[in-house]
Queue: 3 jobs
Job 1
Amino acid sequence: MKISVQKIYKFAFYSLLFLNLFLDSIEINFVAGLLIISFISIFPENKISQSFLNLISPLFVVIMVSFFAGLFYEIQPYEALRGFVYLFKPILLIILGFLLINKIKDKHFIFNAIVYTAAISATIHIFELLVFLANNPFSVTRIRELDRDNFIELFALVILSVNSNKIFLSHTILKKLKFFRFLLIISFVFYFSRTMFIALFLLIIAMKGYAKISSKGLLYITIFTIVFSSFFVSLQFMNLERDSKGIDGFLYKLKIAPAEIFSPDLDIDIHNHESLWDHWRAYEAFKAIQQIKDTNYSVGWFFGKGLSSQVDLGFEVPLDGKRFQYIPIIHNGYVYVLFKSGILGLLMYFYFLVFAYMQCYKPYKNLSLTIVNNFISGVAIFFILTSLIITGIYNKSDIIVLFLGGLFSLQLFFSKTNQEDENRYIRN
């Protein structure tokens, strides 16, 4: 039986989604990405446009600065290789997303693939949840141990929640739209993820075109800020404890979120894990910055400490059943980039995120392009947020960068499509 090239491209895209979603190994996923891009390179027509290369060039600069900075310190080959994999993986997935979606003729494919993949993931999550609840009492902490978040489900829920996105959805999804929404909402809620709840509102605002700095955009952003600020302030007056059960346990996690990110406990008791985890993200970021300062002539501030650098936590910390004193990556993506490539690399990372956000300001040409531009802006806002708490695009399990690469491909395609041609892609 002859297999079409189109099916191969689609299979490759789904493979990347499922591998990164269900296989928690950055090494295997990285090798899989390299194999797929090597296969794609066989076909001479798969070329990357100069405009796209210019767009992702700041991310290459981050790696280059980190590489050259590392030459001034003791090089550890294995750690340098691992550092390269962490920094290059998002670039690899963005390129793969761009190339695959560029060659797939069905320009609705990427949106439908995200929804179908999310539906499968949500089904698995709900099944695991039901099995757990059938054998254990309800506990937010224990439920979160099943899986802490799933951003494919987040983006799929956004796709299904904004009416304008329906032009990209298949007839099958449109017929069962309520079912897909219900499935994803149930799964979404039971992740009890602070990041996902905040990101959901921000993405919907962006998809509706309100991420721009305009009178209406500022109104929605102000309302969002006031509501969430009021909510967090009210939590400070609630008697919530770390060992609280049920919803109170989740509210406690929300209550300590600002302190966890921004307030390191410098008198931390290494034997008191409650104190340790309540300030963990801020503590590891503080230790990274402390080591940047401790460099000759402050060169660490400008160029970082290189690919093979690791953050010295000051004592052995229990992580994933093992004990570590030196870690190659931290939760705060901004400090992580600063640690590896200094202010120069951090500026490049900011430039990439801000440039992606600015796509929502591009002039209206057709409905499809407007939706794609708003989505790119929304993804940028998402990464601006997640860079504070889960390393942004450098999160080892992040798959949204593949989606972002596909959106850049659609942007290029629809920018060349006039209103009449667009009608071929909109379902009546």
Job 2
Amino acid sequence: MTAHAGPDDTERLARAALTRVFEPGDERAGRRLRELGAPELLERITSPHAGPDTLPGAGPRALAGCRARAAGVDPRGDLAAVEAAGGRFVCPGDPQWPTQLDDLGDARPIGLWVRGRPDLRSWALRSVAVVGARACTPYGAHMAATLAAGLAERGWVVVSGAAFGIDGAAHRGALSAGGATVAVLACGVDVCYPPGHAELIGRIAEQGLVLGELPPGDHPTRSRFILRNRVIAALTRGTVVVEAEHRSGSLVTARHARLLARHTMGVPGAATSGLSAGVHELLRGEAVLVTDADEIVEQVGEMGELAPRRRGPVLPRDLLAPLGARILEAVPARGPAGCADIAREAGATADETLGTLYELHALGFVERQGDHWRLTRPGPSRPNARRGAPRPGAFG
């Protein structure tokens, strides 16, 4: 990142400075930024001649708060700090700016501080958020890691918040598959929060991307975690929630995704689990139930990317042609029956019934007792009962 003067640098420096002045998601600040532009807005805030009309709609207390925050801001120092950490500052109009964030309107980020080498815009175009409870169950952690690994193997970028629980499991799942993952932080990108995830965040910065709205060194707060979730929702094609209580921040992400016309998905849990209660409430509404990566890709992917058809195991009798299946059904469950009785029950002629019964006998489905037929009795003395499946289309 260079800091030489110039039109582009003026905008970039002003936006970098404003990330220290305004909280993420401040729509009033976003409206003023849209109307005045970043350099003009910063000039009005920092001007020693500021008056009551400096910021339209802002009272004296709000203006004083902005001026206090703006005092001593050093955008060049912040840009140098993020560059030293292997990062950069991306703002609207940059080639790497993910334009889907513009859907947030005046709540759009002023800019994004980013660590990592990959192109943010191209990664965001094919990304899915996987979020959920911090205090998750082993089932939830397993599902998050499995889904993330499956998405990564299919070329999708997994986005989450680097928190304990589901977030961490999702990041690790993507990394374990050699895939791409993005961590969206509620603090400066040079701050490892939670501290217990310092190693994980470092791995993500090396193999993927770490980003946030707050400048280097800034700390997280409860409100910043909640506001961070709108960025996760807007950045991605869809949001998957794995375990969430009724009052869970991950549900905020899902609601933002729904408002932004993104796909909203949930992974079901036990009906008695409080950690899945919020997910189940989502599924009662507009969210789609998903259980694996194929089902997620079916929602967020291109037309024709369908999940494989689900079915149980194929049994030998499933491969019988319709006539063979009908005649086998006509053989009584208990006791033998004559060919004429079986033919009548199956609605077939005596000749085709007899021929089919002999084929069923050869395949181990039935056995003959004199002039009668019965179902093969399973057991070690009945080898025919364990024979292989018939050829598809047999008896056709």
Job 3
Amino acid sequence: EEIGMTNRIITDISEARDIETINLFNERLEKGYAAEDIFTSLNAKSRDNARTPMQWDASENAGFTNGEPWIPANVNYPEINVAEALAEQDSIFYTYQKLIALRKENPLMVYGTFTLLLPEHPTVFAYERAYEDEKWLIVGNMSEHETRLELSEIATETVISNYDKEYGQLDGIILAPYETFAVKVAH
């Protein structure tokens, strides 16, 4: 998670090691399911696709071993690995560090009240945290599409954002795909 490793997609049952995965594949084949449909299900729910070797760098086997790993590394290891994450200041790794620091340094994140906003919105997850004299608004566009935000709050300070921009009036702003931010708002 800390470097954004993704699940490994399997296309042949010989790539699986988990006995439950192998048994399920064989059971469903016997029941007449199409192999393609079974792999779609397995790639969504199997344990093996998340049990790949740690992706340390872009060398053979993702730098995990000089031998043969029990299961192959994900094919994306040349791009997603620890060495790349440490080299990029805006990587998921450093974002995790910032989020951990925010939690440690701000009692609001631990003790603050939680108020869900926009519970019916199909793509925006938004909530407020309030504690003592402070209130934060946390917003995430969980979509690959731009989304209009309809909140009457006015941001007074950006706490963290995955886009390089400042926030002010939040009503009517257009969120970029997967844009996520936390801002301080008037209490």
